[in-house]
Design brief:
Helices cover 29% and strands 33% of the residues. With 102 residues, the chain is of the alpha+beta class. The chain has a four-stranded antiparallel beta sheet. A hairpin with a 5-residue loop joins strand 2 and strand 3. The two termini are 23 Å apart.
Amino acid sequence: MKTTVVRYKVKSDRAEENIAYIKKVFEQLQRESPDGLRYCSFRLDDGVSFLHIAAVEDSLQSNPLTGLSAFKEFASNIADRCEEAPRAASASLVGAYRTFGA
């Protein structure tokens, strides 16, 4: 799997708006349930920093997340919401115990 970790910080008055966009992404993921994708998003304890982790199976031609209309909407104006721009990094799994979930 190819794993990407993205971290960014939004302006304090835009944090709830950012959460609303993220929730729409997860709602669409629940409806469409694309194969080959694992995705989670966290709001850090400062209330304005966010961390997203996406893992995509190597066999897929493209990342199903980026094709979602809700994700496109989320990403379309992220720069306006951010105090610190998103920084993406590839990551390699060292170990895992259970999965994250609500």
